[in-house]
Amino acid sequence: MSRPRRGRKYLVAMVGLPARGKTFTARKIAGYMGWLGYPTRSFNVGEARREQLGPGQSHDFFDPSNRDAAEQRGALGQQVLDEAMAWLRGEGRIAIYDATNSTKARRDAIRARCAAEDREFLFVEISNDDPVAIEANVRETKLSSPDYSGFSTEEALQDFRARIAHYEAIYEPLGEEEGSWVRLRDRGRQVVIHEVFGWIPGRILSLLTNLQVSRRPVWITRHGQSQFNVEDRIGGDSGLSGAGAAYATNLARYVRENPPGEDLDVWTSTLQRTIQTAAPLEREFGDWRALDEIDAGICDGMTYGEVRERMPAEYEARRLDKFDYRYPRGESYRDVVQRLDRVIVELERYRTPVLVVAHRAVLRVLTAYFLQIPVEKSPWIDLPLHTIVKLTPTAYGCIEERTVLPPQVGEAETGQPS
Ligand code: F6P
């Protein structure tokens, strides 16, 4: 059995009956691996069908005994696979092939194609027989699909159930002889891992084994204004200013009046300014070193003006490539992504609401993940002081709501263009 070498490219093929959460999972993998820095894209056969044939095929179109339609579906599947493989020949590192891939013959063809083009593959099977979960998924993601515009809810439900039945008639679960795969059963209650090796599949597994489908929000806020913020100094471990302390009190009041739930968990960094901001919440909180602010290395404690004056070359290098610029003996934004990896996986695992009290660079990187902003753009995300941001996951994205709390403080966002 050969193990993937560094730099190998991957086709991740979803497997599963309709309405099991394949697209949700495919997008989560794409978001997470993209955020980690691997060019990743999901290729969805349903979207290609709607684009080319128009929406609104009834369940007959998915009946395996309907030969014409089966041919059309086969051709569409092939075309989308071609697109995914073409993307891997270019800039892509991980292509996710989001289709039912419900028969062994179909998957054998995918494996053969990957072998022919010298690509690694991983099948991700989502299996769920709980009628309540399936119905909830159909209602949330399928009824609003263009396939059912003009249908009554009952008509749409009936048609979709019939569509599922057509696939059930031919569905073959993944077998021992099918190489590298993972099966998630009943929303992760059981995970079967079969011949999965390598760093990239390992990161995908880490996400998949922790992924919850529940829609609980994550709140994020920067600490209240610190002494260093007042002086426009970067880094350090200063305490809160008077205005910062007032924000901490107001934040606690806001959380009391807008209860995210009794079971709210509060996470801070290990730095004083976040711990002091969380203190009035009067809850136990976990302090994470991974949430500490970007390490400014030899520039820690300086103002942006001082950096520009004393180290013009460093200042200019950061201005030109803020994402990859690493402070001498410190960190870059890309480094921050690496250390936030486990925070993201933990946030995906959590079933209870979480409030993260942290710092500008760190929260920019977390925000990029949730709002699916390309992570290279994270250094320019606007995240002012004294603002609480609620991020609520939806089926395929995230809703962002911002609340500015008093006291308002200006911030000298001078130095580095933000
Ligand atoms: O100024 C506050 C601060 O959190 C600094 O400690 C940190 O170095 C900086 O913001 C990060 O923002 P930028 O990457 O835009 O310099």
Topology overview:
Blueprint: E1 10-15, H1 22-35, E2 40-44, H2 45-53, H3 67-89, E3 94-98, H4 104-116, E4 120-127, H5 131-142, H6 153-170, E5 181-185, E6 190-194, H7 199-208, E7 218-222, H8 227-231, H9 242-257, E8 265-268, H10 272-278, E9 285-287, H11 304-310, H12 312-320, H13 333-349, E10 354-358, H14 360-371, E11 387-393, E12 398-404
Parallel strand pairs: 1-3, 1-4, 2-3, 4-5, 7-10, 8-9, 8-10
Antiparallel strand pairs: 5-6, 7-11, 11-12
Helix pairs in contact: 1-7, 11-12, 13-14
The protein binds 6-O-phosphono-beta-D-fructofuranose.
Explain what the structure shows.
This protein has 418 residues and is an alpha/beta fold. The chain folds into two domains: 10-208, P-loop containing nucleotide triphosphate hydrolases (Rossmann fold); 218-404, Rossmann fold (3-Layer(aba) Sandwich). The chain is 41% helix and 16% strand. The protein is built from 14 helices and twelve strands. It has helices at residues 22-35, 45-53, 67-89, 104-116, 131-142, 153-170, 199-208, 227-231, 242-257, 272-278, 304-310, 312-320, 333-349, 360-371, and strands at residues 10-15, 40-44, 94-98, 120-127, 181-185, 190-194, 218-222, 265-268, 285-287, 354-358, 387-393, 398-404. A six-stranded mixed sheet has the order 2-3-1-4-5-6, sandwiched between helices. It has a six-stranded mixed sheet with strand order 9-8-10-7-11-12, sandwiched between helices. Helix 1 (22-35) packs across helix 7, helix 11 (304-310) crosses helix 12 and helix 13 (333-349) packs across helix 14 (360-371). The longest helix has 23 residues, at 67-89. The radius of gyration is 24 Å and the shape is globular. The relative contact order is 0.12. The model is unreliable at 1-5 (pLDDT under 50). It binds 6-O-phosphono-beta-D-fructofuranose (F6P).
